[in-house]
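We treat protein structure as text, and this decision shapes the records that our systems exchange. Such a record has a labelled line for the sequence and another for the backbone structure tokens. The record that follows is passed on verbatim for readers who wish to inspect the format:
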Amino acid sequence: MERLDTGELAARTAHVVEHLAAAAGKRALAETESRLREAARRLADGRIVVVVCGEFNRGKSSLVNALVERKGLLPVDVLQTTSVVTTVGWGPQAQATARLRDAGGETEARAIPLDEIAHYVTESSNPGNRHRAELIEVLLPHPKLADGVTLVDTPGVGGVFPEHTAMTTGFLASADAVVFVADMTSPLTASELRFLGHAVTATDSGPDEDGLLVVLTRADQAALADRREMLANTRAKLAELTGRPTGDTSVLPVSTRLRLRYLDSGSEAPDEDSGYPLFEAVLWRGLRRRRARLLLARPLEEAGAAVEALLRPLAAEQEALARETDETLSRMRAEAEAGQQRITELRSTGAQWRTALRSQLRDLRRDLVMALHDELDTVWQRVCTEYLYDEALQDDMDELAAQVSAAYAAVAGATARRAESELNALVSGFAQRHGIGLSPTANSRIDAVGPLRLEPDLGAEEQPGKAMPIGRDGAFGASMGAAIGGTVFGPLGAAIGAAAGLLAGLLRGVKAARHQELQTRRRNLRDQLGMARGRQQRVIVHGLGNLLDTAADRAEQELDSLLRQQTETVGDTLERLKATAEATREQARARHETLAREHTELLTTGQEVATLAALVTELVTEADTDLPPAPRLEEDGADAEAAAEGAAGHEAPGAEAGTTGPEPGTGLDTGPGSRPETEPEAKPEA
């Protein structure tokens, strides 16, 4: 089957919507025209956001550069980047804009050359973000971005700047897809797994197979046996983390170094070595589906409703013109007037539907707030029973603060998505019961409190020096050892026992001192985090309330808009019936011919809407039968067979592993113990 083009579907959808808007305007149906114009605007402005994230020095910026085929676009740096996010989207010409905040809090948009991006986003050029950069927006005339795809390059998580992790986690709530970048040469670390857990939490309302991809970079820098082991290890860890079957999340090995080398060569032969063809096929396939679901389906629903609104008065007038008696016309006018009266009652501010809707929204608010408190309690329990007992986190205040901030940000994102999902379900059911169509709520976010800063000794009680308890335990051990050794073996035994007892006592003293130190620090950190917990809870609960209030207002506005649309349709029907009653036989005959042409044209448009809706459904459910082969990473036949089965399957798990046998001399055929050429994949970057 030929691959469906979302760009073509979007263009045809936009044409249909604009055509119907013009028809509604010509007939003075202002509300129908307004709704169609708004649908066209949303379609034109719609974006699919792909957040590229991962720890420092994993190759995120290099990967974005390879995706847009611009080797030096985003800088790579040996130092951590600042807390600056860079977005890359479509534009008719290449350009960059830095959004800077001045001392007074105002934001300035400053056009900058592409080669000055590093001046704002790297720690070496912008230490401590002294330029106050909030966002760098890059536009490129790249065809892969033309459908509204925006790539978001985020700061590295898990580093010395806790605001990086909190900021990146906050972006997950608005992501349509997440590409998590890890390293083929090292297993997923504890901090990476913690962040992935936050990512799953933040994006886990109605998850689908296209939502999360894990990319292992530097695939050509690991030995053959290590690559197989690393892929299996990563898939197993993801399965344990998510509770989903192994292979449910795509894990794709790539080499950005080989990809950029291939692009520089200008070769027309297939790129068989870098792994990027399969990675991009899986990524763009998922984004096509997301675009169809999120951006095309709703305008087509609006177009179908508009066709119905435009056809109904025409059909009524045609029936009236074809009447055999005036009683038929009287009956039709009475039915139209009754419908008009019903709509008028529904539009009344004290209408029952408003009371019912607000009551259901209050119940939903109560349930969501209770669930939110449960989630926040779960985070706090994890902090107290897991994070504070992790010695690595206790010794790294910044990492501990980053992980706690990320956990709260993930809860905020998950709550926003759950609220959106349940609001849509509530509104849809309400619409069915009352015979009024409603649009889904717009995407919303709940912001958590900014990054935390923890002080290891804040409020700690004065403790005796370590030397005192260690020396005390050492002396006690020496005396006991001497006593026991002397009793059993005499003077020589006393000397040996004293030495052994001293060593045992010193070790016990060191362990006791460390335990005391950790206990004191744990209490200190728990007190600080307890204060932060209260702030986070207040901010997130307040954010949920604002989200629900806004959604309730939008729902009522949407209802009012639809009722105005129905009022216009009924009014148009009544005007046509009135004109029909006053028309002569000749006028009726001519009018009937005009209506027949309009009716046929609208039916044709309706058929186009139905065709486009069917194509969108087909696009969302298309089978993955044309994925490119996996990179040549594996050798044995069993793995190759698994890759073939995976490439034809729903999630392509074999393709994730990269399982067809390498040929001698290919870029990824490094073999056990060997290494690629000395050219690095890219400078380390954040």
The radius of gyration is 33 Å. DSSP finds 17 helices and nine strands in the chain. Confidence is low (pLDDT under 50) at residues 458-464, 633-686. The CA atoms of residues 329 and 394 lie 83 Å apart.
